[in-house]
Amino acid sequence: MSDSAPLTTDHPGQVASATPPAPGRSSRLSDRGLAVAFTSPALLLLLAMSVFPLLWALYLSFTDYSATRGGTAQFLWFENYTAILTSPQVHQRALTTLIYVAGAVTLQTVLGFTIAYLISRRTHGRGLLTTLFLVPMMLSPVVVGLFWRFMLDAQFGVINSMLGSLGLGQVEWLTRQRTALISLILVDTWQWTPFIMLIALAGLTAVPKYLYEAAAIDRASQWFQFRTITLPLVWPLLLIAVLFRAIEAFRLFDLVYILTSGGPGVSTETLSFHVYKVAFLGFNTGTASAYGILMVLVVIVLTQLYLRYLNKLKED
Amino acid sequence: MALSVDEAVSTGPARDHAPPSRRFGGRGRAVLEVALLTVLAVVMLFPVLWMIETSIKENRDVYAIPAKFFDFKVTMEHFKDVFVASGGGRSTLSASFLNSVLVAGVSTALATVLGVPAAWAYSRFSVKAKKDQLFFILSTRFMPPVVVVIPIFLMYRQVGLIDTKLGLILIYTAFNVPFTIWMMKGFVDEVPAEYEDAAMLDGYTRLQAFWRFTLPLLLPGIAATAVFALIFSWNEFVFAIFLTSSDDVRTAPPAIAGLIGGTTVDWGLVAAASVVFALPVLVFAYLVRKHLVAGVTLGAVRR
């Protein structure tokens, strides 16, 4: 099959004269048919598994349906939504999520970009370094969460053990209200710094060398080169990575579930984790659906932003 | 984040800085950079090394205070426990690994079969509202899994797909299709459409041209895309834990997470199971390292 490919494609001109081209009209029609036949199975699957469930959740969000109680659902209209938007519990979770997303994404961006910048300035061993740095990102959040839980254990965790041998005090990483959220941010940063690094590195290596050479001839300082050449050229791509991470961090569930289960108290309960508790521990399916729809709205806004920047990047 | 914005914008007044003398720079700076890079690499890699170390330590040494870094007894017991049950025979953990292989494999195959033709069609034809369709496809992938799982749970309960491998395969296929389409569209765009035009002038139909000329050229791209889809399904946890419960359906991530459920946790076993679980991912990721940027951004960024 593939043997015949180079034969024909190498000399299209010679062979073309032998067979008359197909009439344009019918071929265009069959093209349209082919496009529909090829795209519709995928679209139908997405409609069935993504859109329909969300529409169902939208319907449930207006009712007091409960997955365990069953029976007919009462129509409540916007009662669920007003209950959620005015609940101080939800406000607290929103604040926790905001601190977590902002903290983790900022740390990742600064660290990831620094590492990428340092790697891009090396001439030897770049491939090996990049590969090594990427390991955390490829691990499942389950593995990451479990393992950090072990390492951060207050009694026999290796982190406290190292702090001890340095003569520093022990930290109750996961069992104190304030440190638990910090631990969550640190673990997420550990896992996803490589992501920012990877994208930043792609941006950094795409910066044309002659710009630096020209700057060097003008005796521009390193810092000046960084600010006027490196950052402006890498920034658009970095912004994409940052937005992508922000969306991912906003919908994060597994790491919280494994690392802290929202505790101690509710100090690490993000919005995702709270939705889970309302839906699967409280079985207030209607309320949870309204909650979920509100989260989806936030994600849609963020995704639109992401796609807009992506489009801008592609047009340049 | 905000800090960098300011820097990017305020590039104007930088000219005031006199270029500092660079006599000191050069070597000293390079040494400093290498040192910083080394420290960062050690910090990033230490947890992974510690995990591997824990998986081959005897239980006594796993809980040693202060932690033992080098002088510990090496044992393969934990790895044996991953695969062999205490009374002999296969462990539930090894059964969950097999489930993971099946679910990830089948869902990846399905996503490829559905996604590759769609990607080709989006690349070659002028489909109505193509941009909107592609954006819609990608945005389904961004939905929070905890939110999607609520109606999916109810839906599956209605049709009897709760706690079945088929249910998991379907949902994994649904979240891999958007990725496959976006990733593959990039690969199809790189194959000149003229190849197909030339083949059609030779008398082949459009479909034959795709099948006989474009598809063989796409195979490396399809392989890379499938590897990423495989990794995503393999690592997936949220749907797995909410939609399955019995041991003979459960995939590896919830099974490994279940190891810490009891009163005492066998961290050596957790570490060994994590190593066994992560190893194939790392090998596969290494194989597709050329396409990592596209892969981890769901095919959106290509460099």
TrEMBL record, chain B:
It is found in: Cell membrane. Residues 97-288 form the ABC transmembrane type-1 domain. GO terms for biological process: transmembrane transport. It comes from the Bacteria. GO terms for cellular component: plasma membrane. It holds the Pfam family BPD_transp_1. Residues 1-22 are annotated as: Disordered. The keyword S-adenosyl-L-methionine does not apply. It is a multi-pass membrane protein. The keyword DNA damage does not apply. Coiled coil: none annotated. The chain crosses the membrane at residues 30-52, 101-122, 134-156, 168-188, 209-234, 267-288. Keywords: Cell membrane, Membrane, Transmembrane, Transmembrane helix, Transport. Belongs to the binding-protein-dependent transport system permease family. This is ABC transporter permease. It comes from [Actinomadura] parvosata subsp. kistnae. The lineage of its organism: Bacteria, Bacillati, Actinomycetota, Actinomycetes, Streptosporangiales.
